Amino acid sequence: MRPTPQIIRVVDLETTGSAPPAHHVVEIGWQDVALQANGRWELEGVGGSILVNPGRPIPPITQAIHHIRDEDVADAPWWHDVARRVLDPYPRRVALAAHRADFEQQFCTANLTHGADWICTWKCALRLWPDSPSFSNQVLRYWRKPEGIDHERGLPAHRAFPDAYVTAFHLRDMLNEASVAQLVEWSKVYGLLPRVRYGPDRGKSWQEIDHESLMGFLTDRDPDVRFTAQHEFDRRRGGGTVGKPSVQELLL
Length: 252
Hints:
This protein is α/β, with parallel strands linked by helices. It folds into 2 domains: 7-187, Ribonuclease H-like superfamily/Ribonuclease H (Nucleotidyltransferase, domain 5); 206-250, no CATH class. Helices cover 38% and strands 16% of the residues. The protein has 12 helices and 5 strands. It has a 5-stranded mixed beta sheet, with helices on both faces. The longest helix has 16 residues, at 160-175. The protein is globular. The model is unreliable at 246-252 (pLDDT under 50). InterPro entries: Ribonucl_H, RNaseH-like_sf, RNaseH_sf. Residues 7-180 form the Exonuclease domain. Keywords: Hydrolase. One of its GO terms (molecular function) is 3'-5' exonuclease activity. This is Exodeoxyribonuclease X.
């Protein structure tokens, strides 16, 4: 009999907006990625999704993104009735994962997740695949073309299960390149951007820009930009690298 594998559960939320407690969840989707007997990670099970009653009207601006209407969730369960059983499939769960996980973590609080570690596939993609033209869930999907993905199962975009399904393929491939511990570590800090986002140096690698431009980014309002600029500043003083890590770093 096959032993029950360890899993990382990928989750995706659709909500009424981006700032709880003013906004609430309207749908949660999930897809598991499991460690196989051969040491490789693969998608596990069929995943799923549950509509959630947010207890307030869904603004038209967010309905226009996910197309979930008030009447669709009128008879749905409340968030506290579904969250724990989806987020904490004890004892198999190693961690939770999401693309731009900082967003999900606002709603999936530690008391609901039993204090789970999180992997942010956006932050990890910046490290592992810095040559991607962009790092959104869908751009990575079409740039990388993950092996085995079912195109139709990953649609429509901006619904909880299809987005979790697509993210799970990114996570699978990340886990087969780097350790769980490394992905969790990267996810705990700000995003390390491979290229300058805006201004006269837009599109350049951070190593290409001059010292004066770099110093200006150290006080940027975007925390990911500040973090990356500081990382490059430290590299120039002999303390690190920007871009894809070495094999040794991946095996930490």
